[in-house]
Amino acid sequence: MFTKLTFSLISCYFNALLAILGNSLLISLIIRKSPRSMGNYKYLMLLFSSFGVVFAIIDVTNQPMLHFFNGAYIIFSRNVLGLPRRISFWYIALNCACYGMIMLLLVYHFVYRYLAVCKPHRLELFSWPYYNILIIIFVVVSLEWWIVAIFVAGENPEVEGHIQETMAENYGLNDVKDYTYASSWFYRIDRITGQEYASIPDFLFLANLGVIITSGFSTIIYCWLRLRRELIQSARELQSISQRTLEMQRQLFHSLIAQTLFPVFLMFIPAGILLCFPILKMNMGPVEVVILPLITTQPFMDAIVPMCFIKDYRMAILNFVRRNKNRAKVHTASDLVEDRSATNSRVFSLRA
After folding, report:
1. Peptide bond preceding 270: is omega within 30 degrees of 0, i.e. cis?
2. Which helix (H) or strand (E) holds 68?
3. Is the same domain home to 328 and 271?
4. Distance, CA of 54 to chain centre
5. Could you tell me if 270 and 317 lie in one domain?
6. Which parts of the chain span the membrane according to its record (predicted)?
7. Are 276 and 321 part of one and the same domain?
8. What is the Cα–Cα distance from 283 to 289, expressed in whole angstroms?
């Protein structure tokens, strides 16, 4: 029987395999085929691709799944690594924090391109020692996401009592010891009065994530608008910039647009659904099983986009494919010649 659990596991392994292969190929292209006009930006791309591999490994070893139930969402893992329960929970919280890390790295992509095109004299922000500021921001925001998730979305008996029956019914997990989970239950029941009340910590946790995501995408939108205006102006004033550099800027800009649209539709809209549906007390039914697999396609898509939009990478792949096709044709032709020679020799021997 094809269950929710089966679908989640298959999609998890499939997405991880694609992400690791795709990002490994991109890393090779960045190292070997990056044009000089790309400058130090290739190192930022290299970092982004490397993190895509790390994210895929964390996700496939965690195998997170999602369930909605009566004002709560539950992100759970069966702890396939056999970690101690507390560490297993930290690990699933880290998996959630990786979403924020991807967004931050994407913001850095746009900030770099914005500075390179619009304010090149300030590009030193990405050089020693100033890039330590960016590292600190990345570490602080990532840790904040992770630690807040640990303390606010952590396991507790109240949530366990709320989800125990639905987890057994939908996933066959009868005992809470069979899985580790992170959860937000927005409307809880007072044990004394039996009245429902809004869980302030869970709503504050949601607000915290909203601030991080909104700040990141506000930065991206600002940089995108400024980049677009600058590139249009540069196209009109070709004297101020070489044609090759302008073409590279366009390729990178188009790549960044795609790398923004994919996270919006594959990561942050699903994440918004994940947080909003419990607030509205809506259950998604069978559709809920698609949310996390949709999100975990992101590392693979991040790898595909530069290989499609950056000409040097695209041509390297096409040339590799063509060489292999030509080799196959040569081998086929040589085999045919050998077969004909063998046939002719047999004919002549029979005549003799």
Report:
1. no
2. strand 65-68
3. no
4. 10
5. no
6. 6-31, 43-61, 89-111, 131-153, 203-225, 256-280
7. no
8. 12
Quick: pLDDT tens for 98-112: 888 988 988 898 899
Note whether 295 and 320 are same-domain residues.
Answer: no
Residues 128, 106, single domain; the answer is yes
User: Cβ distance 44 to 138 under 8 Å?
Assistant: no
Residue 322's Cβ-count burial label (10 Å; 0-12, 13-18, 19+) is exposed
150's tokens: 């640990």
Residue 193, domain CATH: 1.20.1070.10
Q: What secondary structure letter does DSSP report for 71?
A: S
Identify the band that residue 118 occupies on the pLDDT scale cut at 50, 70 and 90: confident
Domain count, the chain: 2
Q: In whole angstroms, give the CA distance from residue 234 to residue 220.
A: 21
Terminal Cα distance for the chain, rounded? 68
Tokens 């942050």 belong to 268
85 and 117 both lie in a single domain: yes
**Helices and strands counted in the chain (H then E):** 11, 5
Whether the model pTM is above 0.85: no
Residue-wise pLDDT tens digits, 156-212: 888 888 888 889 888 888 888 889 999 989 999 888 888 899 999 999 998 898 888
Give φ, ψ of 242 to 5 degrees.
Answer: -70, 155
C-alpha Rg value of the chain to the nearest Å: 26
CA distances from 219 to 40, 105, 126, 331 (A): 21, 12, 17, 54
Domain that holds residue 274: 4-309
248 and 334 share one domain: no
> What dihedral angle (degrees, nearest 10) is formed by the CA atoms of 303, 306, 307, 311?
-170
For residue 339, is pLDDT > 60?
no
For residue 320, the Cα-to-chain-centroid distance in whole angstroms is 27
